[in-house]
Each structure stands twice: as structure tokens, then as C-alpha cells.
Specification:
Layout: H1 3-25, H2 31-60, H3 64-86, H4 92-112, H5 114-131, H6 134-140, H7 148-165, E1 167-169, E2 172-178, E3 182-184, H8 186-202, H9 208-227, H10 231-249, H11 252-272, H12 274-284, H13 295-307, H14 325-328, H15 330-338, H16 340-363, H17 367-391, H18 409-430
Antiparallel strand pairs: 1-2, 2-3
Length: 431
């Protein structure tokens, strides 16, 4: 038995402990007890990070993993310290969860592809520095709630140019390339702009005409994403929009209308877009369609089954058997090598993030900020559902990333911005 075999049991204990204290932190109100919760969370996170890189170093025998670990440790430690000093009223539970998920992503991306891990870490550093200013900007620039149509225009243009000038990624027109090494996926940032747009217009909602106009703009966003074959992001936009319209109007029939439109739209999409039908065929019978559309889901199920509850050990799985695993199937890689128990813990941590976001939304006194929190929280929660659900064959594969964990600079920076915006609203509420 080598260290990787021992480490998998340590990981199970650490992730279980972290998850327990995460939910304890949501119910504890005593400041001294909360500090102890935060201490255990941070200590557990850094031990997971350290053990992960010790395993990778022992397996590869290359000092480059130690160098990368030191850089990542400095970044993560600085993130916690800056939030604690600059934004002492921010939600530390949300910050700690964010850091843990980043640690999981760093470990597994480094395990799969070291060069991609270096790029991810550098982009994480850039994104983290940018997002340090987001809560302050949100607090001081109150007029942004009136910039709704500006947000819509910028986001719409960004989506339109992707099918024209964009680069195909995993079968979808997703990214814009600048030079040989730099690409950007605009839809990740348009999600944020879309939420700000809807919140701005609904903040002064006075007539059904406004709802009809915003709905038309939302529909245009979804259609462009479907044409770009970005099915997952289109679904995220759709679900977030109807969650926001319900919060703005408190009318249940809008949710019913959204469900009906979703069912009808899904049926029409299978008839109009061949790639949608292909995804559904692969979901319904991944083994029968193994040679065509079902092979990714089938291999994902094989990998998850191989890991069982305890996992095969970090570095001992076969993530390379699934194409684009670092983008779309990171949950599969985690459950194969760390086991189903750790996979469930990560799902519970993501669920805790959603609970925290909705709790912050419920405490916002201004409708604009409440709608922003609900929209961003819904997008985050639904994106996790789509990623995990696609990997375990609960729903058809949609090709969206797991926030903070999957490889991709645009996804990572956008997720950092989302959490910074939520924390900005929490800080304003505490002020």
C-alpha cells in the first residue's frame, strides 16, 4: 500500500469534516464558535491541498509540483486574508467554500495536465485580484442599477459575434481566440450581464409590456446560444430568467408558463437542432449508442462505478479515457479517484453555496440586489446540477463546467466575479 492508498482515506475524513462544519457554520451565531468553524474549514482545506500535491509529487518525482503548490498556497492564503481584512463583514462561509472548490480544481487539473494547471493558477490569480475590487464597486456605484439596457446590449453583441468569429470547442461555437494562446468564452460573462440587465429592468417593473420586452430579449439570448450549440448555457439563462421574473412579480403562473415553454422549447429543439437530439439519444441509451453519441456518458458511468464509495486513489484512475474530462467531466474524475463519499461531500458544499446565496437574497432590502442574488444563485445551482447530472446520467449531457473545479479561465474568473458580487451584497446588507 503506497501513500496514495492511505491518502484516499484521509481525503474522505477531511471532506466529511469540512462538510459537517460548513453546515454547522450556517446554524451557529456565536462569534467565538464561528471563528472555530472558520479555523477548522481553512485548516481542512489546506491539509487537503498539501496531501493532494504530496501524492502528485511522489508519483511524478518532479519538483515542479512543489513549486506550483507553493504558488497556489500563497494565492489561496492571500484570498482568505484579504477578504478577512478588507471585507470583514463578507460571508466567510462563502469565501471558504470557494477556496475549497478551487483547491479541488487545482489538484485534479494538475493531476491531468500540469501545463493546464499552471495556466489555471495564473488566471485564478488574475481573477482573484480583479474580484477584490468588485464588492467595493458594487457598494459605491449605486447607479449601476440603471444600466440595464447597456448590460443587455454588451451581452447581446458578445453572443452574436461568437458564431461568426468564434472557435469551436467540444462541438460548440463558444470561444473567441486572440493570438495563439489566449481565448475567451463570452457566454460565461454574458450570464452575469444578463442577470444585471433583468434585475435593472424589473427593479422598476410597472407593466406587462416591460415583461414582454424583457422576455423577447431573453428569448433572443437563448436562440443565439442554441444556434451556437451551447445547450447548457441556454438552459441556465432560461431557468434563471423565470426564477427572477417570479421573484419580481410573485406570480406563480409565470413559473407555470416557464415550465410549459421549456417543455415545448425542448421538443422543438430536438426537431430543429440535430445536436440536441444526439445528446438525448446518448442519455437515453449510452451503451446502445456507444459508437456515436453515448460514449462519453458510458465511460463516465464506468469510471464512477470503478471508484465506488472509496475511490481508487488519486493518480490511479483513468481520466484520460474520457475526452475533455477537465472541462465537462471533472466530477467523474473526482468520484473515480476520491470516491463517491467525496463526490457527495462536494455536492453538499455546492448546495450550501446555493443556500447561502438565497439566504443573502432574502435579506436584501432593495429589489435590484435581491434579483441579482437570486439570478446569480440560480445560475450557479443549476450549472452544478447540469454538470453533475450529465456525468451520472440523471439528465442529458449539456457540456457546462463545474464552477471553480473544471479547467477554463473564463469559467473560473466568471465564478469568482459571481461570488464577489454576492459577497458585495452581503457586505452592504451588514453595513
Amino acid at each position: 500500500m503506497d501513500f496514495a492508498d492511505v491518502a484516499k482515506y484521509i481525503f474522505i475524513g477531511l471532506f466529511s469534516l469540512y462538510t459537517l462544519f460548513t453546515y454547522m457554520g450556517s446554524t451557529v451565531h456565536d462569534k467565538k464558535a464561528l471563528k472555530f468553524v472558520y479555523f477548522v474549514q481553512n485548516g481542512t482545506t489546506f491539509v487537503i491541498h498539501l496531501i493532494g500535491y504530496i501524492v502528485l509529487y511522489l508519483q511524478a518525482g518532479d519538483m515542479k509540483f512543489i513549486v506550483l503548490y507553493i504558488f497556489e498556497f500563497a494565492l489561496l492564503f492571500a484570498t482568505i486574508v484579504v477578504y478577512d481584512l478588507v471585507y470583514p463583514k463578507a460571508s466567510r462561509l462563502l469565501v471558504n467554500n470557494m477556496v475549497l472548490l478551487e483547491v479541488v480544481g487545482f489538484i485534479f487539473i494538475a493531476r491531468i495536465n500540469y501545463d493546464e494547471a499552471v495556466r489555471q493558477t495564473v488566471l485564478a490569480a488574475i481573477g482573484t485580484v480583479i474580484t477584490f475590487f468588485v464588492p467595493a464597486f458594487l457598494r459605491n456605484v449605486k447607479q449601476m442599477r440603471n444600466w440595464g439596457w447597456g448590460f443587455a446590449l454588451i451581452g447581446f453583441i458578445a453572443l452574436v459575434i461568437v458564431p461568426i468569429f468564434g472557435r469551436t470547442v467540444n462541438g460548440a461555437d463558444l470561444a473567441l481566440r486572440f493570438g495563439d494562446a489566449f481565448t475567451i468564452q463570452p457566454s460565461e460573462f454574458v450570464k452575469i450581464l444578463f442577470v444585471l440587465f433583468v434585475a435593472s429592468v424589473f427593479n422598476n417593473l410597472k407593466s406587462f409590456k416591460q415583461i414582454a420586452i424583457v422576455s423577447a430579449v431573453a428569448f433572443a439570448h437563448v436562440v443565439i446560444l442554441l444556434v451556437s450549440r451551447d445547450l447548457g448555457t441556454a438552459l441556465i439563462f432560461f431557468v434563471a430568467y423565470f426564477a427572477m421574473i417570479y421573484v419580481a412579480t410573485q406570480k406563480v403562473y409565470y413559473l407555470a408558463a416557464g415550465a410549459g415553454i421549456g417543455i415545448l422549447g425542448g421538443f422543438l429543439a430536438t426537431k430543429i437542432f440535430s445536436h440536441v437530439q444526439s445528446r438525448i439519444d446518448g442519455w437515453r441509451d449510452p451503451f446502445g449508442t456507444y459508437q456515436t453519441s453515448g460514449w462519453q456518458v458510458a465511460r463516465s458511468l464506468f469510471s464512477i462505478a470503478a471508484g465506488g464509495w472509496l475511490g481508487v486513489g488519486l493518480g490511479k484512475g483513468l481520466p484520460s479515457s474520457i475526452v475533455f474530462i477537465e472541462n465537462d467531466f471533472m466530477f467523474t474524475a473526482i468520484t473515480e479517484e476520491m470516491g463517491g463519499i467525496v463526490g457527495i461531500a462536494i455536492i453538499l458544499i455546492c448546495l450550501n453555496n446555493l443556500i447561502l446565496m438565497m439566504g443573502i437574497a432574502s435579506r436584501c432590502n432593495t429589489l435590484f440586489y435581491r434579483l441579482v442574488a437570486v439570478g446569480l444563485g440560480t445560475m450557479y445551482g443549476f450549472q452544478v446540477f447540469l454538470t453533475v447530472g450529465g456525468a451520472i446520467k440523471l439528465i442529458p449531457l449539456t457540456g457546462v463546467t463545474l464552477p471553480f473545479i473544471s479547467y477554463g479561465g473564463s469559467s473560473l474568473i466568471a465564478s469568482l466575479i459571481v461570488f464577489a458580487l454576492i459577497n458585495g451584497m452581503y457586505t452592504m446588507r451588514e453595513d
